[in-house]
Amino acid sequence: MHEGAGYVGEKFNNFLPHALLIKPLIEYLVSHADALWWFMLLFTLIEGLVGLFLLLGFFTRLMSLGVFGLALGILLGSGWLGTTCVDEWQIGVLGLAAGFTLMLTGGGRFTIDNHLLTTHRKIASQNWFPWLASGELPFEGTRLQLVALIGGVAITGLTLLTNQYFHGGVWGKLHNLSVRPHVTIGDAVINNQTLSFTVFRDEGADVYGSFLIGITLKDGAGNIVLQQDMKDLSGLPASQIKNDYVAKVEPGKNSLILPLGARARLTFPMEQNHVLSSKKPYLLELTDISGTIWSQQINP
After folding, report:
1. Which residue of 7, 43, 197, 298 is surrounded by the most CB atoms within 10 Å?
2. Where are the domains of the chain?
3. CATH topology of domain 182-298
4. Where residue 299 falls among pLDDT bands split at 50, 70, 90?
């Protein structure tokens, strides 16, 4: 899967389950592959140009806005990810602080901006130059200090807020949603002798999937009505899987693989001679290769 043409899009899909504020945007993009392709292309170009121009010290303050925007996107989208540490969150908050610092300072001595300041006075004297490149901003000392103070307090507040939201690191119990897989079952129904339900992999590491090795449906008396073992799931036809996003639920060698952020509707025909009960709910159970079982009651 990591060598596929859609790998970058799938990684972006990994951000979806617990993204902050930008979740609707991510869901739209991973639901529309064409729009996602253009977004990824534009994002890659911006990221490359911002990095190159920063290395050269060219239009430093304008590029610092790019750093700030890219870091904010990473923070809000993937700040909850990280199997062993809060690495994505750290990248995001560091980028915010670095971008804001560059906005205030501009480029240093060994930059193209400084070369323009010292040797091309006609360009450097333009009103827009210090705002987009480098040089002294038209602020009085106290106003610049006030801007720095307000910005520093805002970034500190955002750092604490996002850490608490993603990891509970400010107060309460720490949590890491990237440690173990979790699957949410939704819209489970039995209709016309067919079981259908939605699976959404919303937690766990982004580098591997949840591996379903069993799907069991029991009636109100505990009798098994439908049983799918690892052999059945590894050979599940594509017609019984309807994927919603770029990251796809699909059969593997010995299981049904659910990548992080993937959502799909699964359908299973039931035996025609089974009489549906109208009194007691059915119990749907999904078994992961780790032994974890996720369950959902279904009213017939």
Report:
1. 197
2. 7-167, 182-298
3. Immunoglobulin-like (2.60.40)
4. confident
- Of 3, 16, 4, which is closest to residue 263 (Cα–Cα)? 16
Residues in contact with 212: Cβ distance below 8 Å, sequence separation at least 6, in sequence order? 183, 233, 255, 256, 257, 258, 286, 287, 288, 289
- Give the Cα separation of 119 and 102 in Å (integer): 22
- Cα–Cα distance, 61 to 107 (Å, whole number): 8
Mapping DSSP onto H, E and C, the string for 207-258 reads: CCCEEEEEEEEECCCCCEEEEECHHHHHCCCHHHEEECCCCCCEECCCCEEE
Q: Please name every residue paired with 216 in a beta bridge, in sequence order, or none if there are none.
A: 227, 285
Element (H, E) at 286: strand 282-288
Q: What is the pLDDT of residue 192?
A: 86
pLDDT tens string 37-53: 999 999 999 999 999 99
